[in-house]
Amino acid sequence: MNIKNITRKTLLLISMIGILTIAAISAMFSSSDFVTNSLSASHFDIELIESKWNYSHNNVTPNEELDKDPKIKNNGDTDAYVFIEVSVPYYSNVRYETDNEGGWAWGNVPCVKFINSAGKSSDSADFAQTVNEHWYLISESDSSETEPKTHTYIYAYVENAALPEGKSAVLKILPCSEDTETPALFDKIKFFNARPVGNIPIDEEMEISGQSVTIDVYAHGIQAEHLKESGVTTTDPEEVWKILSSGKGS
User: Fold this and answer.
1) What is the percentage of the chain residues whose pLDDT exceeds 90?
2) 167: pLDDT strictly greater than 50
3) Per-position DSSP letters for 166-221, written without gaps between them
4) H or E segment at 88?
5) Considering the entire predicted model, what is its pTM?
6) Which of 20, 38, 71, 157 is surrounded by the most beta carbons within 10 Å?
């Protein structure tokens, strides 16, 4: 065989192999990339404050006024809508003194009346209470427990509780900034002046003197944005309270 011809064939073969190898290598080129997404949930923290309350009030007398100023502070990093719930004990079928020229009222009344920053309180013979501006009563309920029973009020923090006729209350945002807090719901409470006498037989009279009563105050809060699955935020106090009280809120 001619060596020259062999050399040409060998070179041609080598060239073909080289071409095939390059093609194979180029087919194996690849590329990839990735991104890591980190999410951190906001810190939600509201605090109930009663800076004026003395927790050891004993021997309270009728008509005595006690400093009590429940308010809410936002310690978190998320704006909030907030509510205050107050449960007040009451005795049924008692006669108590009103501020109406020393008159007396007969019926079911709470053991305490709220006094606002202007020194005003309700003297009506019912469960009506007087609170400070920006607090709006959205519901109240009565227990059926044994004496003393409990009457519960739920107030929302709103833009303006003194609403023009036909206008709806709008929730007010409690910002997530240092030292931001609501005004007090009320500034004092007054122990009612009751007499377990009247049309009730002596052996059925309700003995009130010497009794201890408990006033429970709760602070509730929920994020101010993205309350609904659609991301639309509502500002209606009753609607937001339903979301919060149903356990669907944050």
Assistant:
1) 31
2) yes
3) TPPP-B--B-SSTT-BPPPS-SEEEE--EE--SSS-GGG----TT-----EEEEEE
4) strand 80-97
5) 0.77
6) 157
